[in-house]
Amino acid sequence: MVRLGVLGGLGLLLHTATAAHSETVDLLLCLAADVSESVTPGEYELQRQGHASAIEDPEVVNLIRSGLHGRIAVTYVEWADQQQQHAGVDWHVVEGIASAREVASKIRRSPLPPWIGRSVRNTSISEVVHYCMRQFRSAPVASRRMVIDISSDGTNNVGARIDAVRDLAVSQGVVINALAIEDSLAPFPDGTHTRPIGGLVDYFETNVVGGSGSFVQVAKGYASFGEMIRKKFILELASLN
Q1: Block means of pLDDT (10 residues each) for the chain, length 241 residues?
Q2: Which residue range is the domain that position 35 belongs to?
Q3: 15 near 143, Cβ under 8 Å?
Q4: In Å, what is the CA distance from 1 to each residue of 179, 226, 230, 231, 233?
Q5: Cα–Cα distance, 196 to 25 (Å, whole number)
Q6: pTM above 0.70, yes or no
Q7: Which CATH number goes with the domain that contains 135?
Q8: Of the candidates 139, 151, 132, 160, which has an alpha carbon nearest to the alpha carbon of residue 49?
């Protein structure tokens, strides 16, 4: 199931192809996986495995290779509270099955964020958007398309207003897509966080996604996460061709 999000103009690009960068790619993709307290250890592992399997999927790799430049750059971020963002995998260029498998392996083997199990982990979608924007600025390659790919099972419950941060990102040429994970394996005590009025998909469409071609993909629980993130990648990459 795909629900289209709010569209927005490209605005002032954060990171365009310039002479300062020796390589240009079709897409800078920041994968942002929610590891806040509403995510159980089992769900955490399903997210990792799902991202890894999707990036090395043959159909995904073929779409990457069919772009103008035939390559994209990917970074994998795990996030929770305002000061809790962790780049488990730094920027890597994916241009074929070998490089895709390398990134997938790094996602599977990436170290746990240092704050897992040691502190309260609220859900600051707004701060991970800021973090990904900084990642775009420091990327070693350039692209005219920048996408933040957020997966989460809850609302923004700490930090700046997510709609305001979303609008800022969109004004700078960033697209934000989302995978809304409904009906998690373990119900979270704060029902309004994972089940807001109107539903999580509506919350993401209204407050989180934005930019040209933005959308919300829905996973009915973490068990379907891997297949849904694969379909999400396919939608994102198909827009490049």
Answers
A1: 36 43 89 88 89 98 97 97 93 98 97 77 93 97 97 90 98 96 60 70 96 93 88 91 74
A2: 2-238
A3: yes
A4: 11, 14, 13, 10, 14
A5: 38
A6: yes
A7: 3.40.50.410
A8: 151
